[in-house]
Specification:
The complex is a heterodimer of chains A (193) and B (251).
Chain A (H helix, E strand, L loop, with lengths): L2 E4 L7 H9 L4 E4 L2 H5 L3 E4 L5 H10 L2 H6 L5 E4 L1 H5 L3 E2 L4 E2 L7 E4 L8 E7 L14 E7 L1 E3 L5 E7 L1 E9 L2 E4 L7 H13 L1
Chain B lengths: L4 E9 L2 E6 L2 E5 L3 H11 L4 E5 L7 H14 L4 E4 L5 H10 L3 E4 L1 H5 L2 H10 L4 E10 L2 E6 L4 E6 H11 L3 E6 L11 H10 L4 E4 L5 H9 L5 E4 L1 H4 L5 H10 L7
Parallel strand pairs in B: 1-4, 1-12, 4-5, 5-6, 6-7, 7-10, 10-11, 11-12
Antiparallel strand pairs in B: 1-2, 2-3, 7-8, 8-9
Helix pairs in contact in B: 1-2, 2-3, 6-7
Classes of the chains: A alpha/beta (193), B alpha/beta (251).
């Protein structure tokens, strides 16, 4: 099993690497296109700002590589948002795998949302063995709307998508690498897909 | 629903955990990595590590400790103490920290908050404030509570959030170490004045105190050290108590 983590300017990849180590997976962190293409599983992490991340992906020609990947891909946090159509953050055109638009939280809530919230309406085997209303750790100011790609939902002022899936692409807004045992289970499930 | 967070704080000196009573008379309370693992198992929602040595020569030691912690725990953690530059923050985040906290350096150079937020994102920038009530108002203190400023706590909190702080860790020096409860009034004032989460710190002595700081102090998270280190309050029992009092908690 060859697992690669996409290396770019918005990745705090250390936590993801350690989480994979804890489940016995040694991953590469790379922006080498041939290594990425030959990997069995790809993780697209991300902590940072959307427009500068997209600009970097384009400069490195990683944008074209990512959208053409055929193996299972898991976007985490900003990684998931970059797989969507566009983001209000920096008015950014994203990779467009998912039709969803990424919007800024508004209303009488604290932004960013920081902490543990529940996920529900769980779909696909990404959530095998994870119970409805399980807690996951979230840190974000922007969210994906509900769409036909939604495979988990969360309430924070409004109902929104905490996970998306289309074909081989998966995205989670929460941080499985920081979400205790349930997050670890989700990473194990992704590795098994 | 987003849950209220319970955050054990580990004060670190020379790689060991200590806890100051009113910021003085520190006493050894164990190995940080072992304690961190134990707290994660017990259901802590997050951890904070404050390096109270924080001299330059120790910085490398801290990064190594951060990496050891990150390898072993699967919940988020914040690292603070003596952080004053983008380079400091970059090293700690690369070592595996999820967030960093700044305190004295941000008061001396508020632009630091803005620079950190634009470089790493607001979500990893926690502003720590040590505050004391005197002369009828809450004032900001620096250098671990040793230096008074003329800055009013509420004003500073608002300014820091405008600059990009993603969270506020508010420690009341009047309450810290007393075990008489958190500072409800200033926590509530700040929580209502800013649009980012507020972590209340200082004064936890009983489970009731946690209930009060969430219900009356409007805190988003509560931080404590000695009541957890010396096993006076067990985290699972605390969380069940809060849940049974209709407070949103992760069990």
């Amino acid at each position: 099993m060859k697992v690669s983590i996409i290396k770019y300017n918005a990745g705090n990849v250390q936590s993801v690497l350690f989480a994979l180590e804890r489940i016995g997976v040694n991953a590469n962190v790379t922006d080498d296109i041939s290594i990425l293409k030959s990997s069995d599983k790809i993780i697209f992490p991300g902590v940072g700002e959307a427009s500068s991340a997209m600009q970097y992906l384009k400069e490195k020609k990683l944008d074209e590589v990512i959208v053409n990947l055929k193996q299972p891909v898991l976007g985490i946090c900003l990684g998931m948002q970059l797989l969507c159509k566009s983001s209000e953050e920096g008015n950014t055109e994203c990779l467009g795998i998912f039709d969803n638009q990424i919007k800024l939280f508004t209303g009488d809530i604290k932004v960013p949302q920081i902490g543990w919230n529940t996920i529900y309406d769980l779909k696909t085997n990404l959530f095998e063995g994870i119970k409805e209303n399980e807690y996951m750790y979230l840190v974000h100011s922007y969210y994906a709307e509900i769409s036909n790609h939604t495979i988990s939902k969360t309430d924070y002022g409004i109902k929104y998508s905490t996970s998306l899936q289309k074909n081989n692409f998966y995205g989670v807004q929460f941080h499985p690498e920081k979400s205790s045992d349930a997050g670890q289970k989700l990473l194990e499930n992704f590795i098994k897909i | 629903m987003i849950t209220k967070r319970i955050i054990p704080c580990l004060d670190i000196k020379d790689g060991r955990t200590v806890k100051g009573i009113n910021f003085e008379n520190i006493r050894d309370a164990g190995d940080p990595v072992e304690l961190a693992i134990e707290y994660a198992k017990q259901g802590a929602d997050e951890l904070v590590f404050l390096d109270i040595t924080a001299t330059n020569e120790k910085r490398k030691t801290l990064s190594e400790l951060v990496t050891r912690i990150a390898k072993h725990i699967n919940i988020p953690f914040t690292v603070g103490g003596g952080i004053s530059s983008i380079e400091d923050v970059s090293a700690l985040l690369n070592a595996g920290a999820d967030k960093i906290s700044v305190n004295t350096s941000a008061v001396k150079n508020p632009q630091l908050i803005k620079d950190l937020a634009s470089q790493f994102g607001s979500q990893c920038v926690v502003l720590a404030i040590d505050t004391k009530f005197e002369d009828n108002d809450w004032y900001v203190y620096l250098n671990g509570g040793r230096v008074k400023t003329e800055l009013k706590t509420l004003d500073w909190a608002k300014q820091a959030v405008a600059l990009g702080a993603g969270e506020i860790l508010l420690t009341s020096m009047n309450n810290d170490g007393t075990k008489d409860g958190f500072a409800l009034d200033i926590t509530k004032q700040i929580s209502e004045a800013v649009n980012v989460p507020v972590i209340a710190s200082g004064g936890a002595g009983t489970m009731q105190h946690f209930k009060e700081i969430f219900e009356n102090g409007k805190a988003d998270a509560a931080l404590a050290a000695s009541v957890f280190h010396y096993k006076e309050i067990a985290i699972p029992e605390l969380k069940r108590f809060l849940k049974s009092n209709q407070i949103e908690i992760r069990l």
